[in-house]
Amino acid sequence: MTERNKNRLLDLLTQEGNNVCADCGCQDPDWASFNLGIYLCVTCAQIHRMLGAHISKVKSIRLDQWNDDQVEFMAANGNQAAKAKYELCVPASYKRPTERDCQVLREQWIRAKYERHEFMDVDKQTYLSGHKTGYLWKRLKGDSRFQSRLFVLSEEENVIKYYNKQDAKEPKAAIKLSNLNAVFVPDKIGNPNGLQISWLKEGITRNIYLYTDDGKDIVEWYNAIRHANYNRLKVAYPGSSDDELSSQLSRDFIKEGWLSKSGPRGVETYRKRWMTLDGRRLLYFQEPLEPHPRGEVFLGNKLDGYFVRDGLPPGKPEEPPNSFSLITPDREYYFSAESVEEQKSWMEALKAACDKPMYPQDKKK
Ligand code: ZN
Questions:
Q1: Which of 21, 111, 188, 293 could cross-link 41 (Cys pair, CB 3.0–4.6 Å)?
Q2: What pTM does this model have?
Q3: What is the pLDDT of the chain when averaged over all its residues?
């Protein structure tokens, strides 16, 4: 490529809107779709390549050859122009993925934009209807198999329910939409479309683990849940902005992984537990995909006596490697991490949770 074309492209990359990836918003994109006229990060560029050249043609800004016409086209278009066209009517409840989100959310966002033109026509946004019915693979309780189950979402009834038998009159469970959280956990479930739904039942967290064969379908379920809750919150908090409401619609886990945990005295055998830090709650499971946690710890504010410390408090025998303690007014918890990095990362995450100010909705349940 001529030096002039290359410099022109690098200059375009510094312009407002082009300096972040058109699809995930991450910094310093250095790929482009030269028929859509947008600048992309390498991960989003790979997704564009999957869509096929009839939809998007991608190449590297620095490493590939660019002719004059292509550079002219890039100059005449760009990320802001594409946004105005392909994101004309993105619902406020729709989860716009960032670079931290999983592949299925990113891929479906990109397909929705450029393949299905979903945000150029509200009629294509079926997840806004307040109803959704279909089959999902659900992990059986106490069993590692997944079986197909009929799920029905009704915004009007504020519920998502599922049936164990095809002809069953009563659902196996009816979960209030306003009480649940949905979070993508592809690695944990072992499926790229893996979704976890959690809710509190009589004060105890209950989880179900789901996936669909089609990525579009699971993202539509996710956005249907978000949209129903958005409409409810919009009525309850009419003064809130769409951004504020949107941030309340689902909650990703802050951190998950294995730790070994001792008992309340710190002298008991350390047992391996799968830990999930979900907002102000630390849940521990014997296995990652259990319906109920073995226990959960509420994390209040440090001013109320919640804090994390390196190692075990003085007087505890035999300190295991990479150990740390979580102190609460009710009880002390003793952990051992698998590596120094994991210890550091868990301690930072727990400390950040205890440092956060408490809001009325944070109260211990
Ligand atoms: Zn990107």
A1: 21
A2: 0.94
A3: 95
